[in-house]
Design a protein that fits this description.
Length: about 425
């Protein structure tokens, strides 16, 4: 009798590639590759190797230099000989169609860049019709300038027009270009359809926002994976999906929250990330309208992350790009329970770095800079949650009185049973 062996499906393995440049030192490159590894893990891949190279700027033909590309190719070949197949190579920057084509020809494996990896995660996370439409539009926007590489098998069939128009072109003129143009037209038509669909969704969302009555709107914003959804669940007593992975939230979730006698609307939004292409942000316009129309932004920051200050800058820049830069904002430093630092020895005379700052020193520094517009909490441990509720209550009450001076909409004080 024939026996069936059930084997586990193995995760795809990935190699990461990044550059150390004049504007990006080795420390920063390694941090970016850490984030890229987290993105790959979120997408379901296992990172087995990293390659970095010092260059003034990315090579326009192959991103890295010829020698480094050869190193990567030799590593892939060695792994294959050892029966450990490398599934893909992921580059930390966005690649052009020419770069992808040349790298694929050399390495003979699947090539992804940071943008295509993020799009893959977006496609995996999208649940609602709105999110799926936005992701599909972003994917087509990314694909359009890179169409040519999908038809490299037709390159030899193309060639000039007229008598002697191109070597070996007799009887084979045009099919490559025709197919390319056909695909381009199909994608452009599909993009027009998706834009129309998103315009309809925008109208529906705008109507929903108008029907929310005279309530102050508060939006949670921040870098991806800083704990916005966990905080949303605590404040709104809701069950928003929260996970220790990047882009766990794609759709904006809006909940009505009541603190003491004051009702307001709280929304959880998609997280931002470094090197996020503008057209990707544009595709999520309807989701980010919640941020644009909010009266107060709660900027959630993961203080345990070694580069949290740069993450703050990334979020502020993205907010400015989408037209939500000048709004009233509070910074909520989350994950104080996970914060660690390296205490310097008394005889250590080297200059102090950010890694040597204690949590108390950071708190004093930021509270001096932001006055009373910042708080330090742990959403997971529920540390300082009551203080957060009290401060949010005061901010929302001030905004409510300013925006609706003749609206006696506040509830009577009551005690929760």
């Amino acid at each position: 009798m024939k026996e069936f062996v059930i084997s586990e499906v193995q995760a795809e393995t990935a190699v990461l590639v990044g550059l150390i440049t004049q504007t990006q030192d080795e420390r920063k490159t390694n941090e970016y590759l850490d984030e890229l590894a987290f993105l790959a893990e979120t997408a379901g891949a296992v990172v087995v190797k990293r390659f970095t190279q010092r260059l003034d700027q990315a090579n326009s033909v192959t991103y890295v230099g010829k020698g480094k590309l050869e190193d990567i190719r030799n590593y892939i070949r060695d792994e294959e000989e050892a029966e450990r197949e490398v599934g893909m190579v992921i580059f930390d920057d966005e690649l052009s169609a020419k770069q992808i084509r040349n790298i694929e020809a050399e390495l003979k494996v699947k090539i992804l860049d940071r943008t295509s990896l993020i799009l893959d995660i977006f496609a995996m996370r999208a649940q609602t019709a709105n999110a799926k439409t936005q992701v599909e539009l972003a994917q087509y926007r990314y694909m359009l300038p890179r169409l040519q590489r999908l038809w490299t098998h037709l390159e030899r069939q193309g060639g000039g027009s007229g008598a002697g128009g191109g070597k070996g072109s007799v009887g084979l003129r045009g099919p490559g270009e025709t197919q390319l143009e056909m695909d381009r037209r199909i994608i452009l038509n599909r993009m027009s359809l998706l834009k129309e669909r998103l315009a309809e969704i925008d109208k529906q969302k705008a109507t929903q926002r108008k029907n929310r009555g005279r309530l102050i709107r508060v939006a949670l914003v921040g870098y991806t994976n800083v704990g916005k959804s966990t905080l949303m669940n605590l404040l709104a007593k809701s069950e928003v999906f929260a996970e220790n992975k990047l882009f766990a939230t794609l759709d904006t979730t809006v909940r009505k929250v009541i603190i003491e006698n004051l009702p307001f609307l709280l929304s959880d939004t998609v997280g931002f990330i470094r090197k996020l292409p503008t057209d990707l942000v544009d595709s999520f316009k309807s989701t980010l309208d919640e941020v644009r129309e909010a009266d107060l932004l709660l900027h959630v920051v993961d203080i345990s992350h070694p580069d949290f200050e740069e993450q703050i800058e990334v979020v502020n820049k993205t907010l400015a790009d989408i037209g939500a830069g000048g709004k009233p904002m509070m910074i909520i430093f989350n994950k104080i329970d996970a914060y660690t630092y390296i205490e310097k020895a008394e005889d250590d005379l080297t200059p102090r770095t950010k890694a040597n700052w204690s949590l108390e020193e950071l708190m004093r520094t930021w509270m001096a800079k932001m006055e009373d517009n910042c708080l330090f909490i742990s959403a997971r441990e529920k540390t300082n949650l009551e203080q957060l509720k009290e401060v949010v209550y005061q901010r929302v009450k001030e905004l409510h009185v300013q925006k609706y001076p003749y609206n006696d909409f506040l509830y009577q004080q009551y005690e929760e049973s």
